[in-house]
Specification:
Arc Repressor Mutant, subunit A, Tetracycline Repressor, domain 2, homodimer, 71% helix, HTH_TetR (chains A, B), transcription regulation (chains A, B), TetR family transcriptional regulator (chains A, B), elongated
Amino acid sequence: MNTPSTNPGPARGPADHEVRDQIVAAATEHFRLYGYSKTTVSDLAKSIGFSKAYIYKFFESKQAIGERICANCLREIETDVRAAIASTNRPPEKLRRMFKAAVESSLRLFFEDRRLYDIAATAATERWATVRAFEERIKAMLQDILRQGRDSDDFERKTPLDEAATAIYLVMRPYLNPLLLQHSLDHTEDAPAQLSSLVLRSLSP
Amino acid sequence: MNTPSTNPGPARGPADHEVRDQIVAAATEHFRLYGYSKTTVSDLAKSIGFSKAYIYKFFESKQAIGERICANCLREIETDVRAAIASTNRPPEKLRRMFKAAVESSLRLFFEDRRLYDIAATAATERWATVRAFEERIKAMLQDILRQGRDSDDFERKTPLDEAATAIYLVMRPYLNPLLLQHSLDHTEDAPAQLSSLVLRSLSP
């Protein structure tokens, strides 16, 4: 791991955003090994080789670092989901692929080697701002797909758009939220397809 | 709490099923106060005033007592759900009331004062036989309602019955399984109605 000099001069040292990225990268690695909830900023400072005060210059709390990691993680899921949606022009198929990609991406990030699960669980339990914003973006994606499907006559138009999107979000939620997903691991193989089919039946004109 | 003589004669003492019920009642109370997972059969024996050997005459393990308590609890939920289904003749309304009753009954049993949550969570995590049988009965109830709704022309007939019932079960699962329900407490007010509406849209002929 690269460590900067302990007293980087403000002029010659790395830019702030570089130091921030470096702290986040090191913290991600540390949390992955030792968990988020049991680690203190002191532990983190020791492990990165920075002083605690230096870390506090860039992040006001452990949660601020956690939020950054969480945001990176959710952005990765979002990128996968958007790519899946963009991979077809047919709105019904967009919905199927969105559900499948969301589950696969969440499983990979939260459960492969329990990587990042601890931080995701804390974020979901405490309903961090990053998590709430992510949920809103997922709902917005659903609304977009519904709108496209209504325009292409694939979906019915009677149900208020917002009501339909919220209900579909509730169907997907157990496979997006890591707290619920951990108790649904037996279902991640079949449930996305079965639930997508049910949702598509609910949307038929 | 009633305690029998410590050496009940096989002829004059209480019948076996009475002693079993007495152990289950005392254990329910004990688990409610101290939790299921941390209690041993020794703790239980001490608290009931029986010898450990006497308890083992009636139950082969702590889990055997737990299974009985869990079965009682699930039977209570099932009774509520069946009553809700029987309270209307219209299949779509049966489905709505079934979902609502299942959530309300589960919330009352598992979360009011966290009563019995500990034992329900253990049962769900370890997938006890009582839990698996309960899930099958819920799926059978769903199939019954679907059959009735197909006969009355309220529901479509294209989707294989089993496929439709399984998918609806998956929609209800996060509100029936205590492990998932604990993370859905913010949604128990609105989600059952929103999801019932989505499910009914999926069933429209």
